[in-house]
Amino acid sequence: MDKYNPAKIESKWQKKWEKEGLYKTPSKSSKNKFYILDMFPYPSAEGLHVGHFKGYTATDVIARYLRMKGYNVLHPMGWDAFGLPAENYAIRTGVHPAISTKRNITRIREQMVKAGFSYDWSKELNTTDPAYYRWTQWIFLKMYESGLAYEAKAPINFCPSCKTGLANEEVVNGRCERCGTRVYKKEIRQWILKITAYAERLLRDLEGLDWPAAIVEMQKNWIGRSVGAEIEFIIHNSKFRIRVFTTRPDTLFGATFMVLAPEHPLIWQLKDKIANWNAVEKYVVAAKQKNDLERQESKIKSGIKLEGVYAINPVNNSKIPIYVADYVLASYGTGAIMAVPAHDERDFEFAKKFKLPIVQVIKTPNKPQGVASFPPRRWNAIDTSGLTTAYEGEGVLVNSGQFSGLLSEIAKRQIIKFLENKKLGKKAISYRLRDWIFSRQRYWGEPIPILHCAKCGLVPLREKDLPLKLPDVKKYQPTGTGESPLAAISDWVNTTCWKCGGPAKRETNTMPQWAGSCWYYIAYVVRSNSKFTLQQAQGDAEQSRSIKMQNAKLLDYWLPVDWYVGGAEHAVLHLLYARFWHKFLYDLGVVTTREPFTKLRNVGLVLGPNGKRMSKSRGNVVTPDEIIEKYGADTLRLYECFMGPFDQIIAWDPASVEGVWRFLGRVWNLAIKARETKVTKATKETKDLGIAINKLTKKVEEDILAMKFNTAVAAMMEFLNFAKKSNRVNSNIMKQFVLLIVPFAPHVTEELWVKLGGKYSVHSQSWPKTIKDLTESLEKTIVVQVNGRLRDKINILGQVKDVELKDKVLKLEKVKKHLNGKKVKSVIIVPGRLVNIVTSQ
Ligand code: ANZ
Ligand code: ZN
User: Fold this and answer.
1) How far is the CA of 313 from the centre of ligand 1 (A)?
2) Exposed/middle/buried for 389, CB within 10 Å: 0-12, 13-18, 19+?
3) Residue 226 alpha carbon, nearest atom of ligand 1
4) Where in the chain do CATH 3.10.20.590 domains reside?
5) Which residue's alpha carbon is at the smallest distance from atom 31 of ligand 1?
6) Could you tell me where the DSSP H helices lie in 146-276?
């Protein structure tokens, strides 16, 4: 008997699909569009494992389903190929990153093709391709023009092992995200992107997104918007003031001292007034060695008093001491605080250690909180004196002069008004988000298209000078001096300034690994052949306008990405950076949507068969190759779907793979049998089958859209068991069953579809409608008469249109014979039963 043999069918169909461009997305179409996107992978030397394929299978199922539903689906793939691993490999082996990257890409692309993913490979892109990074550089230049890219010497997180600076987002628990080494602060010249200029929009626009709540929450916290006040404290007997940011202006009467971050410039400005300068300087230098996390986490607060200087509390004119302590961060707010030990835990600890006064100014009100009235009512406080820890809640003000008795909510507003009148304060909003450190002292990244000219200063390259290509180097070793290996290539570094013609040097820092992924989803849309175009300003004006128009239309049609799928680890890195660039491109008028990704779903981790995270060193990596080799791609895909809820962490289970494989074999056998099965009479059994396939159609559809692939597959298995028990599965029912499996197992279904008499390709078929009239699913014998006399019989599957039936009947040999050249006057059709041809006599 004809047996299921994936090896015999899978590559055959893959080749045919590829040759015919079956999955090419027409860029122009009257259909509704759907853009479904995977986070593109880094082409690592190890290739991809079955964990990566879980997400790719999911999007492929959805893409295939939506094509069947009549959408024009964009489902592209590319390579996020700049980054440290290729460079580190080059350092070890001397193989140029471009070469190793290319090799890895070839291998991974092959893995994907073998899995039958329906990517439109004509749109494939690679972030290290100069034709691509030309536009990454272009966007950078536009940011520079807009004042959003700036150069600064700043203390940044530096990884001593990778010998490069890192963005805040790349530091996880005080360690380098990539290699786990403890980072420290190092002052180096940097390129920085002003992501903070978009803080408010990045926060606000999270509202409308269909994203996992956890990711939205992480972005919110990362942006960290706090509403409060900026308050100025005059330094007694000096022209200087200390500006602080506080979320609790209502506690101002309890501010009994002030603290400056060790990096605060005021410390140096006050040098002459500070009696204990030597000790202060020593403290300041030592504090800089710690990273932010160490500073914030340490339980025992260190610090030093600035002897001889005092600040004046603007509400009560009391003189309060000033300290330098490293629990205050230079990079948040204003880098200085008013310390309110009674109501802030960190200040409380500090005050206890340095024996500073703790004045309670907030207490629990004796009436429920939150009822505002005008004029404000005064409340009594419940007595809670004798604090053993800080009371951090809001409440009613005590010991606060004319503000005593007010609730925090109202007192905040009134104290701000009071300060405004004295020109010593105002309402303020502070963000935790910091500007994005955008330069890396490494080789394998996009060169930053800027010149340093002795005469003109910073000179951006002109658009026509792009792309600025990465030159070849011999040594990839990072220098560790804060300069990238590019600095050693003098004939690349030394150039002439296009503005003045004088000597200039190229910027030798490169862009971080995240740059290329900030706009790749746009690049898929504007790609034609090997070119990309965002806005073409050069050349013939007429032509440039038309390209612009064409692009605008494409971008308008395709964006935003409707559905984006990838790992959750990018919550505040890629997903925040890409939103930032998108908003910038929106402001430039390149894109017309505010957000890049409407719907986002995270794929759950796949663990090795032993329940541990897959890794080479643990030896528990399962590759798609070995599964495809043994069972075929359809089994791999179906198992990726079947293994469990999409977003959950699940261990690979070889026994279950086996089960899925057997299921496909049974589907095959049932289809072969169905070809031979004629069902002519409606019975209870056929009726039940009809009901079951209808139910299944609905279930699979709903489950695909809800990413409950596992329950969809389980329902298919159930249906199969039910169908197998009956001898009534004909090719019509079977074809519908096959159609439901198409998105999951595209190869075997193509083969069975053709075997069942379907028209190639099954991937051009529509998703089946649920069968309305159950008799539709039956094979019917139709009596053919000529002038009322029985001449022939034909078998018809499902519903056939009258014209087609008429056509078919008139072509029958026996009918032709009895017509005998006479003219057909009319054709009478009794649906599902009879056709009578009436001739003129
Ligand atoms: C006085 C005060 C009284 C504060 C009180 C809190 C409670 P969020 O909510 O995270 O924005 N702060 C401000 N700048 C700081 C810095 N550079 N390093 C460390 N701490 C800093 O936090 C705002 C609060 O964090 C501010 O409000 C300030 O302490 C502190 F009962 O000011 B508060
Ligand atoms: Zn110049």
Assistant:
1) 17
2) exposed
3) 11
4) 778-839
5) 343
6) 199-204, 213-223, 265-269
Q: Which residue has the tokens 């230049």?
A: 141
- Centre of ligand 1 from the C-alpha of residue 160, in Å: 31
Distance 579 CA to ligand 1 centre (A): 28
Using most ligand atoms within 8 A of CB, pick from 220, 227, 231, 245 the residue to mutate for ligand 1. Answer: 245
Q: What is the C-alpha to C-alpha distance for residues 259 and 757, in angstroms, rounded to an integer? A: 81
Q: Which ligand is nearest to the CA of 292?
A: 1
Give me the average pLDDT of each 10-residue run along the chain (841 residues): 91 96 89 95 93 97 96 96 87 90 96 98 96 96 97 85 80 85 84 97 94 96 96 95 98 98 94 96 86 72 94 96 94 94 95 94 76 64 72 94 94 97 96 93 94 96 94 80 83 96 96 96 87 66 70 90 92 94 94 94 96 91 97 98 96 97 97 88 85 93 95 97 90 94 98 95 91 54 91 79 86 91 89 88 69
pTM: 0.85
Residue in the structure block whose two tokens are 């700036």: 150
Nearest CA to ligand 1 atom 1: 246
CA 263 to the chain's CA centroid: 35
Look at residues 812, 770, 778 and name the one whose alpha carbon lies nearest to residue 796: 778
Distance 143 CA to ligand 2 centre (A): 21
Which DSSP string do the residues of 336-372 spell out, in sequence order? Answer: EEEE-TTT-HHHHHHHHHTT------EE-BSS-S---
DSSP assignment string, 29-97: -SSPEEEEEEPPPP--TT---HHHHHHHHHHHHHHHHHHHTT-EEE---EE---SHHHHHHHHHH---H
Q: Which CATH number does the domain 778-839 belong to among 3.10.20.590, 3.40.50.1000, 3.40.640.10, 3.60.70.12? A: 3.10.20.590
Give me the residue label for tokens 């530091």: 171
Strand partners, 440: 510
> How many angstroms separate the CA atoms of 794 and 809, rounded?
8
CA–CA separation, 64 vs 22, rounded Å? 11
How many angstroms is it from 457 CA to the middle of ligand 2? 7
Which parts of 603-714 are beta strand (E)?
A: 606-607, 650-651
Of ligand 1's atoms, which has the minimum distance to the CA of residue 390? Answer: 31
What ligand is nearest to the CA atom of residue 433? 1
**Positions of CATH 3.90.740.10 in the chain:** 225-431
Interatomic CA distance for residues 623 and 337, integer angstroms: 54
For residues 477-510, one letter each, b for 16 or more C-beta atoms within 10 angstroms of the residue's C-beta and e for the rest, the string is: ebbeebbbbbbbbeebbeeebbeeeeebbbbbbb
The predicted pLDDT at position 678 comes to: 84
Cβ neighbours for 682, distance < 8 A, ≥ 6 positions apart: 774, 775, 778
Structure-token pair, residue 528: 């034609």
Angle of the 633-642 helix axis to the 709-725 helix axis, nearest 10: 110
Q: Given this model, what pLDDT does residue 174 score?
A: 82
Kindly report the protein residue whose alpha carbon is nearest to atom 18 of ligand 1.
Answer: 328
Q: Any idea how long the chain is?
A: 841
**Which amino acid, 561?**
V
Distance 441 CA to ligand 2 centre (A): 24
Model pLDDT, residue 368? 55
- Ligand 2 centre distance from Cα of residue 463 (Å): 17
Using a 6 Å CB cutoff, which residues line ligand 1? 226, 245-248, 251, 261, 328-329, 332-333, 335, 337-338, 340, 343-344, 430
Q: Which has the closest alpha carbon to 306: 252, 368, 258?
A: 258
CATH number for the domain running over 225-431? 3.90.740.10
> Which residues lie across from 243 on neighbouring strands?
232
Give dist(CA 122, CA 18) in Å, integer.
10
pLDDT for the residue 773: 44
